[in-house]
From TrEMBL:
Keyword Methyltransferase: yes
Reaction(s) catalysed (UniProt annotation): a 3-(all-trans-polyprenyl)benzene-1,2-diol + S-adenosyl-L-methionine = a 2-methoxy-6-(all-trans-polyprenyl)phenol + S-adenosyl-L-homocysteine + H(+); a 3-demethylubiquinol + S-adenosyl-L-methionine = a ubiquinol + S-adenosyl-L-homocysteine + H(+)
Role description: O-methyltransferase that catalyzes the 2 O-methylation steps in the ubiquinone biosynthetic pathway.
Pfam families found in the cross-reference section: Methyltransf_23 (PF13489)
Top enzyme category: transferase
Binding positions for S-adenosyl-L-methionine per the UniProt entry: 40, 65, 86, 131
Pathway of action: Cofactor biosynthesis; ubiquinone biosynthesis
Gene: ubiG
Protein name: Ubiquinone biosynthesis O-methyltransferase
GO molecular-function term, one example from the UniProt record: 2-polyprenyl-6-hydroxyphenol methylase activity
A Gene Ontology biological process term: methylation
Length: 245
């Protein structure tokens, strides 16, 4: 790690480290991640396939803030050569153990920040994902810039996070954490939520071009998640690195 300040909140790292051993239990606090993973994987794979015709297969992929490796593992199984990075030692150990036990091919985990890896290996990846992570760091724009540096010109960068408005407070915090108990209480802080316009600005400033956006909703009656056009709470952005003329 460099001598510069690491873009991480120790309290956030501790929060997820305490739950790390439950990461791969689909009935645990991480159940929502297991349930939304096929949705986000299919969406990003489809967009990548539009340009290459083969989705993630054969692509060099980086998952920033990989945690226990739910998305990273599924992308590796889709044929990508995946690197997962995180600053939670315990979560990475869980990810590594799962990959070993499951025999997941083509996957490597490293304890390093996005900014440090960007300085070490710029323009090294065809696809970069940063899911459910920006709302947990002190400086989200710094992570966006690092993701842009890490992806190859013309490559894809995918983000997902939570909008900041009264509805998102009601749904993502009150509803998800206190009423439906989908997430542990204290998982999110409203002040750290990011409006789509704010993330779109950071994306443009980092040399990325916004290509698509989707919202993600939860139906408490059917207990199912679905992608939709409503970005008022959870949302995903698909971007591509601008190719210099």
């Amino acid at each position: 790690m460099s001598a510069t300040r690491v873009n991480a909140d120790p309290a956030e790292l501790a929060k997820f480290s305490e739950l790390a051993h439950r990461w791969w239990d689909p009935q645990s606090e991480f159940r929502p991640l297991h349930e939304i993973n096929p949705l986000r994987l299919n969406w990003l794979s489809g967009l990548v396939a539009e340009g290459s015709g083969k989705g993630l297969a054969g692509k060099a992929v980086l998952d920033v803030g990989c945690g226990g490796g739910i998305l990273a593992d599924s992308m590796a199984r889709a044929g990508a050569q995946v690197t997962g990075i995180d600053l939670s030692t315990k979560a990475l150990k869980v990810a590594q153990l799962h990959a070993l036990e499951a025999g997941t091919p083509n996957i490597n985990y490293r304890e390093i920040s996005a900014e440090a890896l960007a300085a070490e290996a710029p323009a090294s990846f065809d696809v970069v994902t940063c899911m459910e992570m920006l709302e947990h760091v002190p400086d989200p724009a710094s992570v966006v810039r690092a993701c842009s540096t890490l992806v190859k010109p013309g490559g894809w960068v995918f983000f997902s996070t939570i909008n900041r408005n009264p509805k998102s407070f009601l749904f993502a915090i009150v509803g998800a954490e206190y009423v439906l108990n989908l997430l542990p209480r204290g998982t999110h802080e409203y002040a750290k939520f990011i409006r789509p316009s704010e993330l779109a600005r950071d994306v443009r400033d980092a040399g990325l071009e916004l290509r698509a956006s989707r919202g993600m909703g939860y139906n408490p009656l059917t207990r199912r998640y679905a992608l939709n056009d409503d970005t008022s709470v959870n949302y995903l952005l698909a971007t591509r690195k601008v190719v210099a003329a």
